Protein: GGDEF-domain containing protein
Amino acid sequence: RAKERGKKAACLFEFDFEQEYYGRMRLQAELASALDEQQLFLVYQPIVDVRTGDIVSVEALVRWRHPTRGVLTPGAFMPNAEASDLMERLGEYVLRLACHTAAGWRNPVPVAVNLSPKQLRSGRFVGILKQCLLESGLLPGRLALEVTETVFLVSSETTTNQLAAIRDLGVRIVLDDFGTGYSSLTYLRGFDVDGIKIDQSFTRDLPGSQKVAAIVRTIGRLASDMNVYVVAEGVETVGQMNWLRSNGIAFAQGYLLGRPGEDTVFSGLDPARPGPTVAIANTARDSL
Ligand code: C2E
Ligand code: MG
Ligand code: MG
Ligand code: MG
Structure:
């Protein structure tokens, strides 16, 4: 019976493996046509000043309006895109869209765009970036690019040179998900960045955990000594906001302050009807 069970398990495994394989292939094909058919769009999440509640910037986050599965978040398709050669195209599409959209806002708030390590690997990125800025008319100072520490894992001369060239243009580089990589301090030593975003896994344990409180306070100190700004990600409670304010973390992002949403809400395009994001930000401000 054990033998039979083993056989059945092996069979199940193969079945799952095949399912997964075909699932991946299908998703890749669908993603390729999603790019052609403009099913990808951006939502924007505010980043606020913890003292005033003012929106100081917004982060563009990609979504896929899938023809049958509804709106998908990046977790459902980015790993797949990263593993295929679609990532460069997807990244370029997102960057161009973010620049054009932000350039049209009446409220000239800066926009942050996430960058995949793959986009920096080929050496074509800086050219694409210049083109996006030129075409859209967005001032370089209004654009920030968020990179995770994995960018530095595959760090090559191409990557390093491009990061420097990006900053020379006046576009900011921000270290995303800070603290989750293997040797965050090494990256800070080796590369010049303008900002750091403390990963939401740290924020989640505030203000309860003394250990995390010590770490976050220290990151804040480090950043201010290095003249780098800090954003805490994933802020969901008033208690977290209060802690950040009393511990010198200048900026925050999270559901408490606004969920990712349409740009009309904060861009000044629809001032008559402040949408949910502003309403939530105001609620948070009232609690200050
Ligand atoms: P990220 O850059 O760290 O973005 C923050 C993620 O946390 C977003 O998820 C956002 O919706 C979510 N979030 C924000 N506030 C809260 C909160 O208070 N609580 C919780 N639990 N979550 C919060 P999203 O949109 O699903 O994006 C996930 C990741 O996918 C992003 O993490 C980013 O690494 C990647 N991503 C998103 N858009 C792009 C893109 O256009 N290009 C690339 N290369 N990566 C992207
Ligand atoms: Mg990000
Ligand atoms: Mg992040
Ligand atoms: Mg994150």
User: Anything to note?
Assistant: The radius of gyration is 21 Å. The mean pLDDT is 87. The longest helix spans residues 2-36. The pocket of magnesium ion (ligand 4) is lined by residues 177, 199-200, 233 (CB under 6 Å).
